[in-house]
Design brief:
41% of the residues lie in helices and 13% in strands. The protein contains 9 helices and 7 strands, in the order ααβαβααββαβααβαβ. The longest helix has 21 residues.
Length: 225
Amino acid sequence: MLDSNTFSTHRRGFLGRLGAAIALGVTGLGPVRLAAESAAPDGPSGAADPLEDWFNRINGKHRMLFDAPLPNSGFAAVWPRIYMNTMNATYGSKDPDDSVVVIFRHQAAPLALQDAMWAKYKFGEQLGIKDGDKPAMRNVYATITGLPIPGLGVAELLKGGVLIGVCNVALSVMAGDIATKTGGNADAIHAELVANRIAGVQVVPSGVMAVGRCQEKGCNYCFAG
């Protein structure tokens, strides 16, 4: 179980890496407007705002936000499906009636990334996540099997209509941390992480900003990390 000392350690480590990323001049810490998969132009200028288009998809009868700052054994990739299944069974609703959002931020950001990034940057080892008896070299939470409930995992939730966002500040800090350790270019690494997110995941300027916007859109809040 995580205690207050654990959270203090995570906070100090994150703030230190954030400072290092700023010192490196990681441009990914600035505002982002990253294109969604199929954003249509809107507004009088014809210019699309993919980020607001994404937030505007929160329009279901039932609205729930799962806030995931830590990996927490992948529960943020499980609970949304349980929520939808039980809402449907209890109230006779369908998945499209539910606007469900997951925000991966802080140390949970790697859960939004493809296997190649886990293998290259050893996120399993860094986060203490195992695949069998060894540190995970793939995103074990992209598709979760072996449980009596289908549709679990980040990629499967996206297929089911769940909105999933990942914190750009967290990605930037990760890029800066990797650059410091490897001597690489932080901006190039940040771009690589963004390009290798699981298809359908939206990059949001910051996780805490997205958590607030989702609640402004009427989402109830569930802490998932």
